[in-house]
Write a structure and sequence with these properties.
mainly alpha, 7 helices, 2 strands, 65% helix, 2% strand
């Protein structure tokens, strides 16, 4: 049993390393000037140099990768380029809303899925069974972004829903709204 757990732990560490390396590669190896994106298109060379130094973009890629892994191992996810706020703070602030949406949708999915499955099972090979199976297969195969946008646009004219007042969020805050992208971040 201990060997099994150690093997699972080793595979988990390998998967985390692979995902982190993939994120680094995609984000930092793509040929674009991140400093220009952050500072703006009209930024001076001096401003760009300051942004590159602050972000460590003036160092070799290997050093950037090592710093990335060290920060990640400490739980430091960096800061938002847009708000200059720590990403862990943003995640912690928006996690209750995201968790409530996930829990609510899971309960809804479970109730509808079990009910539809029970109806289809009691009426095997009937038209009802075929319709339920076809609808379930359609929703299962539909890309989530398409399903998300179609639900959002069919349910709301302005494409935003207010989060529950249970969380007592600041209504002017971005986290007080659930956008059509399907999450609260």
């Amino acid at each position: 049993m201990i060997r099994f757990l150690l093997r699972r732990l080793a595979w988990s560490a390998l998967v985390v390393w692979f995902v982190a390396t993939s994120v680094f590669t995609i984000y930092f190896a793509v040929p674009r000037d991140v400093a220009r994106l952050i500072a703006g298109t009209r930024a001076s060379e001096q401003t760009l140099a300051l942004v590159r130094k602050r972000l460590g973009l003036d160092q070799p890629v290997r050093v950037q990768y090592l710093h990335f892994l060290v920060k990640l191992s400490r739980g430091d996810l960096g800061e938002s380029f847009r708000t200059q706020e720590a990403v862990t703070t943003i995640v912690a602030r928006d996690l209750p809303v995201t968790a409530s949406l996930a829990l609510g949708s899971s309960v809804l999915w479970l109730v509808l899925g079990v009910t539809a499955g029970a109806i289809a099972a009691t009426r095997r090979r009937s038209r009802t069974d075929r319709v339920i199976t076809t609808i379930a297969l359609g929703f299962y195969s539909m890309p989530t972004f398409l399903l998300d946008n179609s639900c959002c646009f069919s349910s709301s004219s302005n494409c935003t829903w207010r989060a529950s007042s249970f969380f007592r969020l600041d209504p002017t805050s971005r986290s007080a709204r659930v956008h059509c992208s399907g999450h609260a971040f």
